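Hi R.,

Here's the chain you asked about this morning:
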Amino acid sequence: MPGFLSSVLAAVHRFGPYVLAVNMILYFIELQYTQTRSSLDAGAWAGFIWIERVIAGFFTLEYLLRIRLSPRKGRYLVSSLGVIDLISILPFWIGFYPGLTQEQLGLVRGARTLRLLKMFRYSPKLAEFARSMYHSRIRIIPIFLITIMYLMISSTVIYEVERRAQPEVFSVYGDSIWWAVVTSTTVGYGDKYPVTPLGQGASVLMMMVGIGIVGMIFGFFADSFHDSREPLEPALMEAYCRGVHTEGSEGVTVLALRATHRNNPQFLIFADTVDRYIVSAREGDDRG
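And here is the predicted structure, written out as tokens:
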């Protein structure tokens, strides 16, 4: 029975990207040409909701199969891919709640786009990039803190300077936060801007600092992408595998290599893969 279920899951996984593509195409067609508030509107074509039910059933089957075949069900349920699998089907089942209005059902329909997150499961390159970002998370902490400080300082300065000159534009503190985000990203909608000389002078400095912060953020993503494509040295991989084989995953050599290369996402991905393979092999031997 497990062998049959594994074959079914493999087939579902193989067709998953194509089903997802059809789902998104039909969603945009429905949104563009029907102008309905939800798929259950009186003027909506019934085929849209029935196709959605089939697709949601397809992804629900995949989710249940992954739970059934996972050796560590609890770990899968709280894993990032497990949460993505749940999010991809949850809006559909929420739509059966009888108390939802047409507007709320429209939001449920819009939540179908969350299924695009499943590309992190279907695309090995996306999954590799996500793992690289996760292992690089220690490098984004200072960028995140700097961004928060910048937004707090810039929004507070503008709010205190401009709210008396433009009470209708900067009526609440949230207006200045919106201005700080829009200005720092160089979007510049023009709906809010300083008119006082002090506010304009401060804005010049904030714009320059904001551009630098945005550059740091995009630089982090670029570094993560580059690290995910950088090949590891064969000697390093061999040393780690030898250490795991002779000392185990908690051996001195293994821990030393992890500590030395803790800022190398590619190495950490490789090391985690080796460790998972060893754990799976040992569990197979124990069951045998």
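One quick note: The chain has a mean pLDDT of 84.

Cheers,
M.
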